[in-house]
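Appendix B. Worked example

We walk through a single record from start to finish. Start with the input: the chain for FAD-dependent urate hydroxylase, Acinetobacter qingfengensis, length 385.
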Amino acid sequence: MNIIIIGAGIGGLTAGIGLKKYGHQVTIYERVEKILPVGAAISVWSNGVKCLNYLGLTEQVKKLGGIMDHLAYIDGKTQQTMTQFSLDPLIHEVGQRPYPVSRAELQYMLMDEFGMQDIKLGIALTHIQETEDHIVVQFSDGTEAKADLLIGADGTHSLAREYVLGHKVERRYAGYVNWNGLVDIDENIAPADQWTTYVGEGKRVSLMPIANNRFYFFFDVPLPLGLENDRKQYKALLKEYFADWCEPVQLLIERIDPERTNRVEIHDIEPFYKWVKGRCVLLGDAAHSTTPDIGQGGCMAMEDSIYLIRSLAINTNSLQDALTRYEKVRSERANDLVLRARKRCDITHMKDPEITQAWYEELHQEDGQHIMKGIISNIIGNPLD
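Next comes the structure step. The output line below is what the pipeline stores for this chain.
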């Protein structure tokens, strides 16, 4: 088939790589002229790594990943360890180590694997129209292209989603702002082989190791929507929001480079189940934009890609049949995880102070089994189990 993918993000690229391996002619159109990933890094949990393994990228993702052997929650003010445990039982249970990775490095690796010659940058989708035998797409440069299948992997502001649903979907503000970036590993801030999260007051400061001796960090603060975003004020604001927090948090704030730090107001969208219209199918954030609170957004996009590739390969009744089967299986799983992430978001960010305080108290009694059970429940059910 001749396939057009809208969006050169993680989902679009993984779909493109896999579809090429099955002999399809694939072109990716991306509206931005230069790829500047939103977010410094991404948690590629074991289900996401398995998707990359399936595409033959085992060594490539391993090279990008940090070694994360332990997990810990720390009281942000007192620096008391609330819980700390090994992730080995989780890795053995699901059959694959997770890898926190630089989002940019992952995206560039996928672009190289797909082939830059088939990625059209700086060209935005403007219109979709179907004929009896094809789907025709028009672009911002005045050109148009015809394909057998259009994959809308165009993110949370998806135009393809608007075509499929027949209306625009409003995003829902999750109630907090996230600052994220990369710093060199310093064990005065956190152990080099551990996912460390400082918590308190509905706020989080988290660090994960990625390749080349770096931490991926993020700060979460519950705040109103639409506050001024002044990069020059990032350090001052973080010092204000975390004024009485422990020394490692203060050290991290000193180390960040505001010019290389991202600020994101966190949103999701209400789950929906219509992902297909004719020859157009949705994938990734276009289908299930979620908060990052369980670290499954990118993994879900990769799962979508693998399941779509396989559905097209093994269900030969018709294109519509293959797409419908994809829609049914993936919408149920992805929408469940959107709601899980929303629930975790509300607990973590003190939507109800009593519930969040109860969670903090539970962490002091946690031996790792409950947390790992929750992570494993997010991982299982993927298309490569």
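Two observations about the output. DSSP finds 13 helices and 18 strands in the chain. The first strand starts at residue 2 and ends at 6.
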